[in-house]
Amino acid sequence: MQFTKIRLTDTAVELIWNDNTETDKQITELSSTDLPEPSFTEALQAFLPDVLSLLELPAGYDVTVRSVSIKYKGEADRRGIVVTCLKEIEAVNSPFVIHTPLVMERVEDDEYEDSFIGDGLFDQLTVLTDEAQRYLDGHRAQGDLDFEEDPQPNLGRVPDPPEPEPVHV
Known about the structure:
The chain is α+β, with helices and mostly antiparallel strands. It has helices at about 40-45, 50-55, 120-135, and strands at about 1-10, 15-20, 25-30, 65-75, 80-85, 95-100, 105.
């Protein structure tokens, strides 16, 4: 499984991923209104310092990271990412949208190694994809339900009707 987009809006978590095999290419999308755990949101917002540095914006620039798009290139699936941020503007009812340029993962013998500045982005990408996988596995803000410890055998099952009383004549 390879995530290609991880997005958090005001109302939903959106995840897109590939499940590719040698013969099939399968793209799956999930949009859920279940709130993520705080660690998911923190992992997404942790891109902000590197994004501000990459875009040469001041450290206190007021933007929110909204999504991360991930590209895979070559046989080694070298990763590239684009981070999308939003800046609220008081004068209009829609935000200013900021995208980073595509930043590719460093590989050995990269001809552009001296100009590469994205190591922190890819360290954070690993954390974010782990959080996205946890979200898929059911870890949501409402907490985990553990039915193993306290089984509820009648949960959702209509009880059997009572046995009829014998009739004496």
